[in-house]
Every structure is written in C-alpha cells, then in structure tokens.
UniProtKB/TrEMBL annotation:
This is Protein lplB. PANTHER family: POLYGALACTURONAN_RHAMNOGALACTURONAN TRANSPORT SYSTEM PERMEASE PROTEIN YTEP, PROTEIN LPLB. The chain crosses the membrane at residues 20-46, 85-107, 119-139, 180-201, 213-231, 278-297. It comes from Paenibacillus elgii. Belongs to the binding-protein-dependent transport system permease family. GO terms for biological process: transmembrane transport. Keywords: Membrane, Transmembrane, Transmembrane helix, Transport. One of its GO terms (cellular component) is plasma membrane. It is found in: Cell membrane; Membrane. Pfam families: BPD_transp_1 (PF00528). Residues 79-299 form the ABC transmembrane type-1 domain. It is a multi-pass membrane protein.
C-alpha cells in the first residue's frame, strides 16, 4: 500500500511539475544513451570480437586480453608515462583555475573582471589541432618565436618539440593555457555564494585581504575543491588522446606514449600486436575504468574519514 501511495504521489508530482521534469529529460537521455547503453559493449573485453559475427556471435576468450596487456613488454612504460602526466596535471594544472578564480574574485571593477574572464575563457573553444599548430609555430627551431628570442639573446636554438625532457612540461602548459579559464567557472560560482557578511565581520576584526582569503574564501571553496579532486582521480589514466597524439613524434615516444595512443595503434591502427584488435582496446579501457573507480572510492572514503562530505 505504501509503495502504491508513493507511486501515485510521484506520478502526481510529475504531472504537477511537468515543466521541470521536461527540462530534466535531455540530461537523462544523454546519460542513458551515451553512458549507460554503451556499457553493454564491455562484454567485448572478454571476447575475440569480430565485426562480422557481432557481440552475440563472437568467441568468448575470458581474461586473455588482460593477460596480453599485463604481459606486454611496454606496459610499465605506458603506465609510468600516463601516471606521470596525470600527476603533473594534478600538481600544476588543477590548482591553476583556483588561483585564477581567487584573483578574479579580488577585482573590484566588474567591466574589467568580465573582460578578463572572457579572454581566459576563449582558448577552451579552440580545438587541439589549432593548439598544436600554435605550439609548433612558437617552438619550432627555424621560425619559432621562442627560439628566435633565445638566439637574439645570444643563446642557441633548442628543439623543444623533439626533446623528451620538455614534452611533459609542454603538455601541462598547453592544458593550463587552454582550460584554466573554463575551469574557473565552478570556483567563481562557489565564491558567489559566500556570505558577504563574513567579509564584513572580518574587516571589523581588522583582517586584511590575505586574512580574508585564508580564513573566509578558501574555506568556502574547500568542499568544491575536494569534490573536483576526487572526480579528477577517476580520470587519472585519461590524459587526452588528441592532445598527446598531435604532439607525439619518434623522439618523444619513450616519455609520451600513453594508454590512449597505445589503444589507437593496437586496437584501431593495426600496428604491433596484430592490429584491429577491438576487444583488446576495450580491455584496456575497462582496465583504466576499474583503476579510476578504485581511486574514486578510496579517495571518497578517505575524505569522509577526515570529516568531509565527499562525492557520495
């Protein structure tokens, strides 16, 4: 009886507030069609998938593709490269939007603040192909602006694009330049919800701007920072295929080859372990997802242990 009453009540609420549920529908359809339905394809990781036989007719091979992945002679290099790039992004890129949001929040003139916001947002809408082209124009040894400046000051031109020591730094700097403005949106939204009376009370107590930042602004952002960090850990093995692929060359492969480029070559590109191994590519993707899930669950549990809310 309670269940029936609850169902009737839910149905009544849907009919009463149908406009709100209609607004919710596109988001639900997006996650259903593009997130949940494709999860059926995970079964390919345990098959020797053939496009001619389909998922239901392909041969079942169990964990063979996972064994091939872990026994691959370059597996630890791929794992190290992926983790290092993710680690550098967390250390240097993740705090960058927070810093920019704090700086923008300190601006008094709204027109100037909006202008700066617009400028730092724009790179987000530029494709990685264009970003890669800009990087090449700036850093190539012949006509690159950076090398021309180095030579003009008496130095020697350096091939940054083919230098393994510069590759990861270049990737992180590209991420910061392209996405830091877009990343400030969430933090600026969180800052807009801070009670202004807290700043007024701090002023009465004699606090300067640094004290207000440390004791009022940052505590207000703490939960947002923690949630985004936990979610970021879920993508620790995803460093971005397009960006890495565009910047790779033979000289930086030892430090730049990651799981995404590896899956492209072995699962689609037809090079290396046999080519066209769709099931193998799905197995690598499933491995990455499982690692991300474990990290999210662990980080969320650790956050709750220290008294924070966590993601769920």
């Amino acid at each position: 009886m309670k269940s029936l009453v609850g169902n009737v009540s839910l149905t009544r609420r849907i009919f009463t507030h149908w406009e709100l549920y209609l607004l919710l529908l596109p988001g639900l359809l997006y996650f259903l069609i593009f997130k949940y339905v494709p999860m059926f394809g995970i079964i390919m990781a345990f098959q020797e998938y053939s496009p001619f036989l389909g998922v239901t007719g392909s041969e079942w091979v169990g964990f063979r593709h996972f064994v091939d992945l872990f026994q691959y002679d370059q597996f630890w290099r791929l794992l190290r490269n992926t983790l290092l790039i993710s680690f550098y992004n967390i250390v240097f890129y993740f705090p960058a939007p927070i810093v920019v949001a704090l700086l923008l929040n300190e601006l008094v003139r709204k027109w100037f603040k909006r202008t700066i916001q617009t400028i730092v947002y724009l790179p987000h809408f530029i494709s990685w192909v264009v970003v890669g082209s800009i990087t090449y124009i700036l850093l190539n040894t012949e006509t690159g602006l950076v090398n021309q400046l180095i030579v003009s000051f008496g130095g020697e031109a350096h091939n940054f694009l083919a230098d393994p020591d510069s590759f990861r730094t270049m990737i992180v700097l590209q991420n910061i330049w392209k996405e830091v403005g877009w990343g400030t949106i969430i933090f600026l939204a969180a800052l807009s919800g801070v009670d202004t009376q807290l700043y007024e009370a701090a002023t009465v107590d004699g606090a300067n701007r640094w004290h207000k930042l440390w004791h009022v602004t940052l505590p207000a952002l703490r939960s947002t920072i923690l949630i985004l960090l936990i979610l970021r850990l879920g993508n620790v093995l995803d460093v971005g295929f397009e960006q890495i692929f565009l910047m790779l060359n033979d000289l930086v492969y030892p430090v730049g080859d990651v799981f995404e480029t590896f899956v492209y070559r072995e699962g689609i590109g037809g090079v290396g372990l046999g080519g066209g191994r769709f099931s193998f590519g799905v197995a690598v993707g499933l491995f990455k997802s499982v690692v991300g899930l474990i990290l999210v669950l662990g980080a969320n549990k650790l956050a709750k242990k220290f008294g924070e809310e966590g993601v769920f």
